[in-house]
Amino acid sequence: MDSQTAVANQTAPDASTAGKLKPNSLGVMGILFFVLSAQAPLTGVAGAVPIAVAIGNGAGAPAAYLAAGVIVLLFSVGFVAMGRHVVDAGAFYTYIGKGLGRYLGAGSAGIALFAYCAIQAAMYGLYGATVSGLLEHHTGADVPWWVCAVVTMAIVQVLGAVGIEMGARVLAVFVLAEFSILAVFALVTLFKGGGPEGLGVAQSFSPGAALDGAPGVALMFAVASMIGFEATAIYGEEAREPRKTVPRATYLAVALVTGFFAFASWMLISSYGASQATDAAGKALEGGDSTAFVFAPIADLFGTWVNDVLPILLATSLFAGILAFHNSANRYLFSLSRDGLLPRRLSTINRRHSPSVAGWVQTAIAVVLVVPFALAGKDPVLALFSWGSGVAVLGIMLLYLLTSLSVVAFFRRERLDTRPWNTLIAPALGALGIAGAIWLILENFTTLIGGEQSTAIWLELTVPAVLVLGVVTARLTRRRAPADG
User: Does the keyword section mention Hydrolase (predicted)?
Assistant: First the structure.
């Protein structure tokens, strides 16, 4: 069988058994809310910005977010070009398979599933700790973090099953709430002329500021904060006019997230003063609560009532991210099943055209990943959140790299789109930027996970191990399949 037939077979479902996700369910804004939820803006700002400022390039951290946005934008050009010709809930898996071959596509599907489930498990750790603290603060009840996590798993399972439209509505409320308070703070600070040292434009965006200190560390955390925008393609099958909706949602998501993180981090630094921000972020980290760097100036501006509201918004931000990654992961399971790489039962859909069996399996995976940390008495933030998010960032960045290479290979062979910028130049530049980001992540992985070198090494090795496992599984599945005619 020739290579083109092999690629076609990869995405051709068995019509008698494959389910169909509900078409025309999501517009640009619906997809956008899923993407923004996956990126958990308040979690990203409160968790990543203090570290980028303290041990990265200090007041120049906002420039790192702009640089990360450029890399992601270059990647998006080829990603969108591929999306105009390939619409499938498998996204990365299908894209990479189209350009680099079925087996590497299957291996990338394993990485995608692993990364999405890992980041969701990581969020359950931070979410459980946050909600447990809120319950103790407001009610005096001492509820273990893992109980909060397991109860939420049941809620997420229900929301995932009742249909994509309901999930979009729930996420819209949570995303707007967390965006609003940070956006209002940033805008008020801007119109006030900044903090004690003014706006500090040069101190945050000049080339000297961008390259000060350890810019690689800042860029690493900036890139990590943007993980999740690629989910636009996952919902292509359920989108209205996907060849228009998905590109618009992708570019809008990249622009919004880049602008939001750069603007919010700039105003946070300005509120302290560029010369004082690094010390303030360092003290917050030393105190064991990095969120204090973010929450303190907001409370100073709006009043102490914010100290009660922001932890609740942090919890809802995490919940929104958990639900978004649940939907992404179960659609990968659904797509792999429909393509014959996983048991056919996983492509079963319910009356609302949502992946039913795949949803249950994804929830079961969450239990398997989270509960052992509870049984072992591991810290839900220092262990589960740090390890899971570190592995997920590494895995998804590898998928970005493979996708960029696949775009170039696919359009050089198929010639469906001959625009050089969209199909060669931008994807190649994006691949170079992503490769550099991967190198920075590997160089600073111990910092990213907040653990020891030995822990960092075996966590790093899980990503190529999953890739190899996916390739081997695809080959074995292929051999067991009936011979092609």
Answer: no
d(CA 389, CA 380): 12
> How deeply is 477 buried, as exposed, middle or buried, from its count of CB atoms within 10 A (0-12, 13-18, 19+)?
middle
Give helix 386-414 / helix 102-139 axis angle, nearest 10°. Answer: 150
Confidence of residue 468 (pLDDT cuts 50, 70, 90): very high
For residue 18, the SS3 value is: coil
Size of the chain, expressed as the number of residues it contains: 485
Kind and range of the H or E element at 29? helix 28-39
CA distance 216 to 42: 23
pLDDT at 85 over 80: no
Query: Measuring CA to CA, how many Å separate 157 from each of 2, 18, 324, 358, 462?
Result: 41, 22, 11, 10, 27
Kindly list the structural domains of the chain, giving each domain's residue range(s) and its CATH number in brackets, ordered by start.
28-474 (1.20.1740.10)
Q: In which residue are the tokens 């990338």 written?
A: 108
DSSP 56-124: IIGGGHHHHHHHHHHHHHHHHHHHHHHHTT---TTTHHHHHHHHH-HHHHHHHHHHHHHHHHHHHHHHH
CA 416, CA 82: separation in Å to the nearest integer? 10
The amino acid sitting at 291 is: T
Query: Comparing C-alpha atoms, which of 366, 330, 365 is closest to residue 349?
Result: 330
H/E run at residue 261: helix 242-272
| pLDDT over 90 at 162, yes or no | no
Cross-strand partners of 239: 26
Q: Provide the residue type at 257 as one letter.
A: V
d(CA 203, CA 63): 10
Burial of 207 (0-12, 13-18, 19+ CB in 10 A): exposed
What pTM, to 2 d.p., does this model score?
A: 0.84
Give the model's pLDDT for residue 66.
Answer: 94
- CA 441 from chain centre, in angstroms, equals 15
pLDDT digits (tens, 9 = 90+) for 12-43: 333 333 456 666 566 677 777 767 776 778 88
Residues linked to residue 463 through DSSP beta bridges, in sequence order:
none
CA atoms lying within 13 Å on the CB side of residue 186: 20
- Tell me the C-alpha distance between 118 and 436, whole Å: 23
